[in-house]
Design brief:
The structure is a single chain. This protein has about 120 residues and is mostly helical. The chain has a domain of about 70 residues. The termini are far apart.
């Protein structure tokens, strides 16, 4: 029956002491450095998000300028778009989409490659 008695209320955990020990000079400088680093980081974040729309406008303007230049070159050289696309597709089909550029160029189709006749000479 002694178990039925209510237990003494426990003290809630809180701040260890209402008067904590003061920081040393080196600890104060570390806290100050952390505070100013966070302030600088927050200011940079605010600036980055503030300039977001301006960067978007610059990207859109650059894309418009590039499209206008491409259109001008197409008109200047008189090359229709479908011809240009057909040539690009032909090059990609011939050399592969991910082919690397060869320094010596591509060999002629009618010329045998080195060493195909077994002699090792051309």
């Amino acid at each position: 029956m002694a178990d039925d008695a209510p237990a003494a209320p426990e003290k809630p955990l809180g701040v260890p002491s209402p008067n904590p020990l003061p920081l040393s000079a080196s600890q104060e400088s570390q806290v100050r450095d952390i505070f100013y680093a966070r302030e600088e980081h927050d200011a940079a974040r605010v600036e980055w998000f503030g300039m977001r729309m301006e960067r978007k406008k610059k990207r859109e303007h650059a894309a418009k300028v590039a499209a206008a230049q491409e259109e001008f070159l197409r008109e200047w050289w008189g090359l229709p778009e479908e011809v240009r696309r057909k040539r690009q597709d032909e090059i990609q089909k011939r050399y592969g989409v991910d082919s690397v550029e060869r320094v010596g160029g591509m060999p002629a189709k009618d010329r045998p490659a080195l060493g195909t006749d077994g002699s090792g000479a051309r």
